[in-house]
Amino acid sequence: MDKFDRIFALHKILSSRKTPVSLQDIGVKLECSRATVNRIIRNLRDQLGAPVEYDRERNGYYYDRQQQPLFELPGLWLNTSELFALMVSQKLLTDLQPGLLQEHLKPLRDRITAILHHQHAGHPQIDQRVRILQHAARGTDLEAFRKVATALLDRRRIRILYRSRGSDELTERVVSPQRLIYYRDNWYLDSWCHLRKDLRSFSLDRMSPRDLLDKPAREISETELNNYYAAAYGIFSGTADQTAVLRFNADAARWVADEQWHPDQQGKILTDGCYELRIPYGNPTELIMDILKYGPDVEVLAPLELRSLIRQRLQETMGIYREQDIPS
C-alpha cells in the first residue's frame, strides 16, 4: 500500500469499529511499521480533520462520534485500485462510441491522472493496455444522443423523425423515453410511442430528434418494460410464445455451454457430448442469424416452423454458390 491507500484503509477501519483499535492491530492491517502507523494517524487527524482519539484505558484509537457523528473523507477519495478501475471504465465507454462523451469525460480523466501521479502510482497506460474491438457498429450523432439522453433523464417527451429500416418510411412521432440500450455495438431507445400508442424500440442511427417538449414523459413501470422487452429474443419486443430447441455438436458445445443467449434459456450436456439449448422467442429474425453462425455445428430440433425457416435460408445460400461456379 502507498500513503493514500493506507489513509483510506485506516478510515475504513475506524469507521466500521465501535471499540478502539490498538496500534499493533492497525499496523498488521495496514502492513506497515509502528512509526508509519503514527504518521498515517497524524495525517488523517491533523490534515483531513478526522475525529481520531486515543483511549488510554483500552490502548486503542477510535472515531469520536460525539464530536463528529458521521465523518467522511473530503472530495473524491479513492484508492489506487479504484482509480485504475475508474480509468478502465472511462476507456471502455470512450471506445464503445468514440467522441460521444469525450469532452465531458476528459476533465475527469485528467483529474484522475493527476491524482495517480501525485500518489506516485505511475501512468496506467490505459490506451495501450485496454482495447475494445467492435463489429458492425453504426455511427451515432453526438447532438442526437445528447437530446435523447436529456429527454430521458429529465423525464420529458421528445419529438423525433424516424425512418424505419424495414419499410424506409419516414414518420414524425412524439415519444416518452424509457431506457437507452447499448446492444450489439449499437444504441437503441425504448420508448412509449404516442403515435402508435404502444411501446417501441428505436435505433438511434435512424432517428432525428427535433424538439424537447415541456410535457412530462409517460412513465412505464420496470416490470412492464421487462415483460415487453426482455421476454422476447434479442432486440425484438413482444411475447415469447415459442421455444427453440437447438442441438450443438460436441465441438460447439464447449463454447455454447458458457454463453447466455436469453435470460430464461435452459441447457444441458447430452450423453454423447452434444449440448441441447432451449430458448424462448417471439420474432425469429435475430435467432435465425445466430443459429446460422454455427453452420453445420447446430441443428434445430423444434419447432418445425423454425427448422423450415433455417432450411430455407440455407437453400437460398446454396443457390448462390452453384457447383459450376467452384473451380475444379
Radius of gyration: 28 Å
User: Strand order, biggest sheet?
Assistant: 6-5-4-3-7
Class derived from helix and strand content? alpha+beta
- Summarize the helix and strand pattern as letters: HHHEEHHHHEEEEEHEHEEHEH
Residue ranges: pLDDT <50 for 5 or more in a row? none
The general outline is extended
Number of helices: 11
Major beta sheet summary: 5 strands, antiparallel
Helix content: 25-40%
Per DSSP E runs of 2 or more residues, the count of β-strands stands at: 11
Mean pLDDT, to the nearest integer, reads 85
Walkthrough of the structure:
By secondary structure, the protein is α+β, with helices and mostly antiparallel strands. The protein contains 11 helices and 11 strands. The strands form 3 sheets. It has a 5-stranded antiparallel beta sheet with strand order 6-5-4-3-7, sandwiched between helices. It has a 4-stranded antiparallel beta sheet with strand order 9-10-8-11. β1 and β2 form a beta hairpin. α1 (3-16) crosses α3. It is extended and about 90 Å long. It starts with a helix and ends in an 8-residue tail after the last helix. The mean pLDDT is 85.
Secondary structure blueprint with pairings:
Blueprint lengths: L2 H14 L6 H8 L3 H14 L4 E4 L4 E4 L16 H17 L5 H17 L7 H4 L12 H13 L1 E8 L6 E14 L2 E8 L4 E6 L3 E10 L5 H8 L12 E7 L1 H7 L9 E4 L5 E7 L3 H8 L5 E5 L1 H17 L8
Antiparallel strand pairs: 1-2, 3-4, 3-7, 4-5, 5-6, 8-10, 8-11, 9-10
Helix pairs in contact: 1-3, 2-3, 4-5
